[in-house]
Amino acid sequence: MFNTRIPLSSLLIISISSCVGLVAFTWPLYIPASDNVLSASSAKVLSLVLASAAIAAVFIAINQQLFDSKVVALLGILVALDGALRLVGAGAAGIEPMWFLLILASYIFGATFGFAMGALSIAVSALLTGAIGPWLPFQMFAAAWIGIGAGLIGNARILQKYRRLELSLLMFFGVIAAEFFGIMMDLQLWPWLLSRDTQLSYVAGASVVDNLHRFIVFHLATSMSWNLPRAVVTALLILFAGRAILGSLRRAQRKITLPAMAPAEL
Amino acid sequence: MISFRNVSLIYPNSLRTVLDGLSIEVNEGEMVLVIGHTGSGKSSLIKLVNGLVPHHTGGILSGEIEVAGRSTRSLKPGQLSDVVGIVGQSPAHGFVADIVEDEIAFGLEAHGVAPEVMRKRVEEVLDLLSLTELRDRSISSLSGGEQQRVAIGAALVLNPKVLLLDEPTSALDPIAAEEVLAIVYRLVHDLGLTVIIAEHRLERVIQFADRVLLINEDGSAEIGDTATMLASSPIAPPLVNLAKVLGQEKISLSVRELRRNTEELRNVLTNLQPKIAPANIGSAIFTLDNVSATYDEKSVLTNVSLAIHSGEVVALMGRNGAGKSTLLKCAVGLTPITRGEVQVCGRDPRELKGKDLISRVGYIPQEPDDLLYNQSVADECRQADLDNNVAAGTTLNIFKSLMTLPSLSVHPRDLSEGQRLGLALSIVLAAQPQLLILDEPTRGLDYEAKRELIRIVRSLARDDGSQQRHCGIFIASHDVELVAEISDRVIFLADGEILSQGSTRDVLTSSPAFAPQVTKALSPQPWLTVGEVEAALEGRNV
Amino acid sequence: MKRHPLAWWGCCALLAIFVLHSDSAIYATVISLALAVLVLLSRESSYWYRSFAFTLRIAVLLFLIRMSLGIVIGVPMPGRTLFRLPEIHLPSWLVGIRLGGEVTSQRLLTTFHECAILISLVLIFGAANALVSPRSLMKTFPRALYNVSTTILVATSTLPQLARSFSRIKRAQRLRGQSHSTITSWRKVSVPLLEESLERALDLATAMEARGYGYMKNVSHYRPLMWRIHDSILLSSALAVVVVFW
């Protein structure tokens, strides 16, 4: 947290769980053919179980870093803000102010913080609205990965020299992140929304390329009316409020990292 | 119980020495009041006792501090939490859970206390602080005083021997403040707790304190018995100043004491009259005519009629929940009016938007911070110039005329309370409104900042020959002393209805509960402020 | 009658797995209707209970989306033709699918079948969430997740206060001459809100630290939840249903 060294064990767990999560996400692309009609539902159950287990594993690893009251307080309150932001545009296509805060906060506070913030914001807003469905663990993963991405950007030393470009870089990342989230959501909703009976559904046993083709068409056809506004809103919010928000977050960060307190002879 | 040995403290980002060579001992069961100007290190001193400084908040510390035999240097705040409890000034900010009972139990959970013991302790604390009926309530639905009680309970549940209070009453109205202080007093006397309390509003606390610790600007500190310290301290409540003006050697700490000590002296004053400065009242700029408002099917204002004129300062007083804020919001059109008419400078405020509105009414809300959204003082002033379509630098000049400017690159949230209020005032005044509304402006201000505010308000209302137009000023406040100092008229609100209206002197001297200390001390004579008494005595001597 | 969160959630999880495995629209519909009725009958006033209305809305939305997708781009199936939609053949780089066409009863039924399964899952978990407070759910978390659950607790406790701060700040911006909300006015509200939240976070951290948070690893639970007999009944009846109809 807070750009300090993360223990190797946590890093390992996060990477492994992310891979597991990715596998769970993309099963429709490469699932082998089978006559058993139940294999589709077993695949769904398995992927849900895997994703939930992976998330739980990561949280157990993160739990170790949450013994600091400052981190808990900051994370908890930013999650509350972000969760509330997610509910702001509720219903309106793609108006999701949640992402800009997630990206900016992860940029300042680091990748692990970003992971926790993304996953927990989704979880908290789901708890409060009851919008719990088979998409939840996947949404948590997707938001968490966006957090990690923004955090990694923040860690990059090279950026220390290019502060002025900061905002443009973050806007660019925001657009990519918005589209990424759209793709991830479609990917995991694909087998649910279009199970075996439509022409665009995945075909068990077909080649990965073939399924990918179908998926891309599905994605472009259906969710662009969500993805485009999401990307635009995120980019605009970063453009107009980014500098001020980064300033506030940096001030908070300064107050949190303790100056050295060696007992001095005054 | 607590000992400081040659303690010095500085913060790396500032060059000021916060504390310099402090060595004091606090005995068990004592109540020590810490006073000093804003930013003088009261808060740091208090946080030194439980280790928050330097372990949590940072700072470079030298010297030794011991609490109940434990040194704070080697122990973290968590390890001291079973001996020292702390209550801060924003109760709502310090709550982890939303239910009262869960919040109180939180500290015990963190210490891994067994469930049966937890149960017993929580019940005891709920009983002690009369919180039993509130145990299942959501904390955000409680009043300020109740929330502060929950905060005290959350600290007490760990059975500490020392309780630290960092300005516990600054966000509370007078009645809630009295409640909280009475509880603290009872804890000291019934449970033998050692209490260290930092406060701005000394009126309520000085009678309870055993000793007073004064922290000076240069970091030096003096401690002594309450009466002696207050006699020579630059920071003192009106009662103490009154005693000095009346030539008393022995400082009285309560109204009762002062009356006892000054029986003959008061007779001298009977023949003197307070000098009343003539007010230059203009036309009415804010009128309410039989206004009623309902919110959620509850009537919040009933048949309210009043008029504010330019050049006069009117105070609005009443309990929390009486409808003061609702009444103030009528001026900006934010109140759901069901009957009657509201006029601000001849227009209905509900029809006014944007620049039309702010050029007539300037409104400083209870949290002036809500108005500030830029990164530095200079940016705020520039933005205000743009918003109000005035020449660049106007806002900054107004700020300069109100008070000494802080450094312009400082972030507005890093300013002191008084400076933030000044900045908000400048932003609002840049639009040159005729009506200025202040909602609880003295919350969190120390005596010196309050004096500045009084000076500012007076200069805005009276004709002092400057370019400023006469404003009509409408202030909602619990602070009786402030009202006594600056207002011409007082309006009393209760349950959405006006109880009484009249000149300040008439209203305040006839109300036992809402009279300022000077009035209570010198009753039945109609004196309001120490300044009046002082001027009258000087006039007599000349 | 206080429900143990694990009993209720466990019950719902079992039913969800059952619905998925049995792949039967009938079972799905029956279960979701039963749960919905159960939730609607137990009128509570807590905020998490009210989330069920939102869940219902999402279920309806999903139903509509799913049905239209199934009708428009469904795989052609034999059966009695119900009606005809105009056909549009898309080129092969769009996978060569055919939009519209004959809508047969078979196609409609299959689509409805898939819908029912999806919606029942949403309703099952929505019901689980509506009848158990998030706080008691978090109390069941293992000790290894105590800090995470504290974070969630802070988040859920702070949300209502944030909403209040938001409206207060929005009102204050009007006092500064802001007459309509544009995208730039977002900054004027979000920055004070964020600043206040960050300040609050620091105050909260101080308060938590001062009460000993995080210095001991063995935390205990106030009022640990008791597993009662009706919890066992609930769970075993769900188990029974699943086993019998598997």
| Mean pLDDT over all positions of chain B | 86
Helical percent range of chain C?
A: 55-70%
- Residue share in β-strands of chain C: 5-15%
Main sheet characteristics of chain B: 6 strands, mixed
Low-confidence stretches of chain C: none
Which sequence of strands runs across the widest sheet of chain B? 6-7-8-3-9-10
- Please state the CA-atom Rg of chain C, rounded to the nearest Å: 25 Å
Computed CA radius of gyration of chain B, to the nearest angstrom: 25 Å
Decide which structural class fits the backbone of chain B.
alpha/beta
What is the element layout, followed by pairings?
The complex is a heterotrimer of chains A (266), B (542) and C (246).
Chain A: H1 8-25, H2 27-30, H3 38-63, H4 69-88, H5 98-109, H6 111-129, H7 136-155, H8 166-193, H9 208-222, H10 224-256
Helix pairs in contact in A: 1-3, 3-7, 4-5, 4-6, 5-6, 5-7, 5-8, 5-10, 6-7, 7-8, 8-10
Chain B: E1 2-10, E2 17-26, E3 31-36, H1 42-49, H2 52-55, E4 60-67, E5 70-71, H3 77-80, E6 84-87, H4 100-110, H5 115-128, H6 144-156, E7 162-166, H7 174-191, E8 194-198, E9 211-215, E10 221-225, H8 226-232, H9 238-245, H10 255-261, H11 263-270, E11 284-295, E12 298-309, E13 313-317, H12 324-329, E14 337-344, H13 354-358, E15 361-364, H14 377-388, H15 394-402, H16 417-429, E16 435-439, H17 447-461, E17 472-476, H18 480-486, E18 489-494, E19 497-503, H19 504-509, H20 517-522, H21 530-541
Parallel strand pairs in B: 3-8, 3-9, 6-7, 7-8, 13-17, 13-18, 15-16, 16-17
Antiparallel strand pairs in B: 1-2, 1-4, 4-5, 9-10, 11-12, 11-14, 18-19
Helix pairs in contact in B: 4-5, 4-6, 6-7, 14-16, 15-16, 16-17
Chain C: H1 5-22, H2 25-41, H3 47-73, E1 81-89, E2 98-104, H4 105-131, H5 134-139, H6 146-175, H7 185-210, H8 229-245
Question: Can you walk me through this structure?
Answer:
The complex is a heterotrimer of chains A (266), B (542) and C (246). The longest helix of chain A is centred in the C-terminal third of the chain and has 33 residues, at 224-256. Chain A has helices at residues 8-25, 27-30, 38-63, 69-88, 98-109, 111-129, 136-155, 166-193, 208-222, 224-256. Helix content of chain A is 73%, strand content 0%. Chain B is of the alpha/beta class and 542 residues long. Chain B contains 21 helices and 19 strands. Chain B has a 6-stranded mixed β-sheet with strand order 6-7-8-3-9-10, sandwiched between helices. The longest helix of chain B has 18 residues, at 174-191. Helices cover 68% and strands 7% of the residues of chain C. In chain C, a hairpin with an 8-residue loop joins strand 1 (81-89) and strand 2. Chain C has helices at residues 5-22, 25-41, 47-73, 105-131, 134-139, 146-175, 185-210, 229-245; strands at 81-89, 98-104. Chain C is flat, with a radius of gyration of 25 Å. Chain C has 246 residues and is mainly α. At the A-C interface, helix 3, helix 4, helix 6, helix 9 and helix 10 of A face helix 1, helix 3, helix 4, helix 6 and helix 7 of C.
